[in-house]
DNA sequence: AACGGGACCTGATTGC
DNA sequence: TGCAATCAGGTCCCGT
């Protein structure tokens, strides 16, 4: 599910529910996700107050009083569900927006809800992740960025420090398609399969082009394309490809604005006269969508 | 060192 | 209808 805009949206939703409140109970329902939960997770989180949230790449950091932060990665299939007794605000929605399956405090847990936190104002916030590619850890807040999962990450694409010069420097000498380079979280942090495809389309750059040949003038087009597609998606509440929802119960709507992702065979939005259709190829085992006419 | 492929999981969809 | 194959928004490890 989640790339940077989806993680940002989920995090803002969690902040709205949790900030300033105390976590009075933690239930850990299995020993691990992608790797084991941290030692004494329940004891270290129970009784703590939630101070603030931060996002780094596709990771969320929930700062707790007591000096530790809960680090959460949603993997491919992870989502957060929040509910309150008899007042479902973040119920599961269908992509069409019809509410369903609202659960109260005493309802049975839904499948694959591996971690549940209950707050002092009666909310239950759960981490649901069928495929278990997600991750949870605790890290000392003062040295968050030294965590092994964060230490090697590249620049945040929406920060001013992410410039064409910075991207160019990361691409120089790389003998891999630009598609693969942009998925590399040490080059730029937070892009995934969807937004790489969309950014390359906006920049008119072929996903097959060697990364090194994008350094320079093409990077000058690519950086604004990356920033724009991420910003627009965050503004739309991210993309909902399954039943992912925002904190306020609305589905993300950015998928309606995909120009190429998942649109094999359709003419692209900007070719006039219409192009023969968006192509799908496989690069390092993953689908790439692009317009062969516009993207060189 | 940088790269591609495979592994890790479950569920939804597609095709026979 | 039923079953198998394929695909999915991510990352990490391994061999080359």
Structure overview:
With 296 residues, this protein is of the alpha+beta class. It folds into 2 domains: 4-146, N-terminal domain of MutM-like DNA repair proteins (Alpha-Beta Barrel); 164-290, Helicase, Ruva Protein, domain 3, CATH 1.10.8.50. 22% of the residues lie in helices and 20% in strands. It has helices at residues 4-18, 41-45, 164-171, 178-183, 193-203, 217-235; strands at residues 23-28, 50-56, 59-64, 68-73, 79-84, 113-119, 123-128, 135-140, 279-283, 286-290. A 4-stranded antiparallel sheet has the order 1-6-7-5. The chain has a 4-stranded antiparallel sheet with strand order 2-3-4-8. A hairpin with a 2-residue loop joins strand 2 and strand 3. The protein is globular, with a radius of gyration of 20 Å. It binds a DNA duplex (16 and 16 nucleotides) through residues 1-3, 6, 34, 58, 73-77, 112, 129-135, 149, 173-176, 180, 183, 185, 192-195, 239, 241-242, 244, 261, 284-287. Belongs to the FPG family. InterPro entries: FPG_cat, FPG_Glyclase, FPG_N, H2TH_FPG, Ribosomal_uS13-like_H2TH, Znf_DNA_glyclase/AP_lyase. Its EC number is 3.2.2.23, 4.2.99.18.
């Amino acid at each position: 599910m989640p790339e940077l805009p989806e993680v940002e949206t989920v995090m803002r939703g969690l902040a709205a529910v949790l900030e300033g409140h105390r976590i009075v109970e933690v239930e850990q329902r299995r020993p691990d996700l992608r790797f084991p939960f941290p030692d004494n997770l329940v004891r270290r989180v129970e009784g703590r107050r939630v101070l603030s949230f931060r996002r780094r790449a596709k990771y969320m950091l929930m700062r707790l009083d007591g000096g530790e932060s809960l680090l959460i990665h949603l993997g491919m299939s992870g989502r957060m569900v929040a509910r309150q007794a008899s007042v479902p605000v973040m119920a599961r929605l269908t992509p069409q927006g019809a509410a369903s399956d609202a659960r109260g405090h005493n309802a049975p847990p839904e499948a694959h809800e591996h971690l549940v936190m209950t707050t002092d104002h009666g909310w239950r916030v759960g981490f649901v992740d069928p495929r278990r590619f997600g991750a949870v850890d605790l890290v000392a807040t003062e040295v968050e960025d030294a965590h092994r999962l964060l230490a090697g990450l590249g620049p945040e694409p929406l920060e001013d420090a992410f410039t064409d010069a910075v991207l160019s420097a990361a691409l120089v000498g790389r003998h891999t398609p630009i598609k693969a380079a942009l998925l590399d979280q040490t080059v730029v942090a937070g892009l995934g399969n969807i937004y790489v495809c969309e950014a390359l389309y906006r920049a008119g750059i072929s996903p097959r082009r060697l990364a090194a040949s994008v350094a320079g003038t093409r990077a000058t087009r690519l950086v604004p394309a990356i920033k724009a597609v991420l910003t627009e998606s965050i503004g739309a509440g991210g993309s909902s490809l399954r039943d992912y929802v925002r904190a306020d119960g609305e589905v993300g709507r950015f998928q309606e604005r995909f120009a190429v992702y998942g649109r094999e065979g359709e003419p692209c939005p900007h070719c006039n006269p219409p192009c023969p259709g968006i192509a799908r190829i496989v690069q390092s085992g993953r689908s790439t969508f692009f317009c062969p006419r516009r993207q060189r």
